[in-house]
């Protein structure tokens, strides 16, 4: 695992954008694994500017997002589909038909999950996966648990995650208690993974990511088994 420590969140965004843009520059038809949350927003902004300036193009890329609240319509302003449109897709030249987010309204989430994983494989697998990290070490919506799930699946959110994400909703009761998420194997299959972490609230989770232990009680620690993961953290997340 390579670790890049940056002065602040803006520097994290710049470093992440450099690595992401290099991937798309080297392989214009890259398969992109994308994340929501506030952390990657700065990186998306830089990439959108690079796209506008003609430095990189996403027109031949495909993308797969990590997760979606359940049940939630893609048109809902707190859905991750809506988030991706507003924060990234609306500002770049990607063909939206080639962008996928797990279906938050799937009647049969298990079938949807299997189809989603098959679609990623059929596209050739994710070339670069962007990840944030939850305060409890969750990645996508793989919450700490005794057992983690391999493929894309329906899951329940922990109290910690509901509390952390309540800031985006009018009131805590509005936060969905379930989500559909790529599983650990779906994520670990990505060829390159960049995990972005900013702010003191992420320090405990990041600290465990940097020791030599692996535990399902901090799902991000499984990334230590991945051959090409880059952690990009600001000083607050790194030092606490
Ligand atoms: C959500 C998402 C995760 C994200 C996490 C952290 O729970 N499912 O993919 O990493 O939030 O979000 P933030 O970057 O806003 O701290």
Descriptive account of the structure:
32% of the residues lie in helices and 18% in strands. By secondary structure, the chain is α/β, with parallel strands linked by helices. It has one domain: Rossmann fold (3-Layer(aba) Sandwich), CATH 3.40.50.1360. Strands 1-10-9-6-2-3-5 form a 7-stranded parallel sheet. The chain has a 3-stranded antiparallel sheet with strand order 4-8-7. Strand 2, helix 2 and strand 3 form a beta-alpha-beta unit. Helix 1 crosses helix 2. It starts with a strand and ends with a helix. The model has no long low-confidence stretch (mean pLDDT 97). The structure holds 2-amino-2-deoxy-6-O-phosphono-alpha-D-glucopyranose.
Can you lay out the helices and strands and say which pair or pack?
Blueprint: E1 2-6, H1 9-26, E2 31-34, H2 41-52, E3 62-65, E4 67-70, H3 80-87, E5 99-100, H4 109-122, E6 128-131, E7 153-156, H5 159-165, E8 178-181, H6 184-188, E9 192-197, H7 203-210, E10 229-234, H8 235-239
Parallel strand pairs: 1-10, 2-3, 2-6, 3-5, 6-9, 9-10
Antiparallel strand pairs: 4-8, 7-8
Helix pairs in contact: 1-2
This protein binds 2-amino-2-deoxy-6-O-phosphono-alpha-D-glucopyranose (GLP).
Which sheet architecture does the biggest sheet show? 7 strands, parallel
> Judging from the principal axes of the Cα atoms, what is the shape?
globular
Mean pLDDT: 97
Estimated helix fraction:
25-40%
CATH topology-level name: Rossmann fold
Give the names of the bound compounds: 2-amino-2-deoxy-6-O-phosphono-alpha-D-glucopyranose
* Low-confidence blocks of residues: none
- % residues in beta strands: 15-25%
H/E series, N to C? EHEHEEHEHEEHEHEHEH
Radius of gyration: 16 Å
What would you say the CATH architecture is?
A: 3-Layer(aba) Sandwich
SS field, number of helical segments: 8
Q: Can you list the strand order of the major beta sheet?
A: 1-10-9-6-2-3-5
Number of domains: 1
* Content-based structural category: alpha/beta
Number of strands: 10
